[in-house]
Amino acid sequence: MEVFLGWIFFSIIVGAIGTNRNIGFVGAFFLSILLSPLIGLIFTLVSKSNEQIEFEKQLLSQNKKQTDGILNANQKSFTDELYKLKKLLDSGLITSEEFESEKENIRRNIPIKKTVLSLYCSQTPGLSGELRV
C-alpha cells in the first residue's frame, strides 16, 4: 500500500514538473503512472519547455522575415531595369544598338509582371498590348 501511495505521490510531482513543458501535467502524470515516476521524470526533463518553444517560434519568424526581405531586395523589376537602361541611352553612355541588345537581354532574363497599363493595353481595341520604349 505504501509503495502504491509513493508511486502516486511521485507521479503527481513529475506531473507538476511537466506543467511548464511541452509534455504537460497530464502527459507527465500518466507516463509516470504507467511506466514509473523515474522514467516519467526523464521524459519530462527531456521535453522542451514552453519558453523554449516560444523562443524557437520567434526565431523562426525573424529568420523568415529576414529571408523574405533578402529575396525581395534581390528581385529586379523589368521596368526598373528598363528605366536605368533608358537613362544610360539618354545620357549618351550607350548607343541605340547597345540599348536594344540590353533590352532584349532584360526581356529574356527578367519576367514581365502584369501591370495596370499592360492590362489596359491588352483590353483596349486598337492597342497591341505591348509598351514600346
Word description of this protein:
The protein has 133 residues and is mainly α. Helix content is 74%, strand content 0%. It has seven helices and no strands. It has helices at residues 2-17, 24-34, 37-46, 50-74, 78-91, 96-109, 116-123. Helix 1 packs antiparallel against helix 2 (24-34), helix 2 packs antiparallel against helix 3 and helix 5 (78-91) runs antiparallel to helix 6 (96-109). The termini are far apart. The model has no long low-confidence stretch (mean pLDDT 81).
Q: Please outline the major beta sheet.
A: none
Protein structure class: mainly alpha
Mean pLDDT: 81
Distance between the termini: 92 Å
Written as H for each helix and E for each strand, in order along the chain, the element string is: HHHHHHH
Structural shape: rod-shaped
Low-confidence stretches: none
In DSSP terms (H or I, runs of 4 or more residues), the helix count works out at 7
Strand content: under 5%
Radius of gyration: 33 Å
**Percentage of residues in helical conformation:** over 70%
Strand count:
0
